[in-house]
Amino acid sequence: MTLTRQFLMRVTRFFSVLLLCVFISACGFQLRGTQALPDSLSSINFKCANEKTWDLCRQLSREFQFHQIKLSDDAEMTLAISDIDKKRRSLSIDSYASTAEYDLIYSVRYKLTHSPTQTLISNQVVEASQSYRHQSSALIAKEREQGEIKTKLNQKITNIIFRQLSVFD
Prior knowledge:
Distance between the termini: 60 Å
Mean pLDDT: 80
Structural class: alpha/beta
Order of helices and strands: HEHEEEEEH
Helix content: 25-40%
Radius of gyration: 23 Å
Shape: flat
């Protein structure tokens, strides 16, 4: 009797999990970052302004490769990334009248054009910001933290651009 009861409990648990998965997928739930680009963007001509945007362009290239988007000079769509505009502003000042907290703001312009007709499809400015505490006594840690923040900001901009490109058809 206990063997059949255990079997029934396992079967019930299995079907409950299966039913829950069906309900979640039926409502349109998607994991973040799993959006796909439209078929018109299955291959893309990708252009970066210069070495200043190299980290951002490298992350975008990885994202395209991850989603099996072919980078080709002969593609119908061209994505051009401009220079990154970097701004830093003070958020708070400590008791010694020096900046205690900064806000680092990255903005970049991208253009999506249809190459054969030179039709501009999208011309957008993407902006991402991150705040951090500034401690003048910890210069080495500050440089490392700024490097991590720059990487995060590039990833944020990459995600925003990719999300915006996923709605074009």
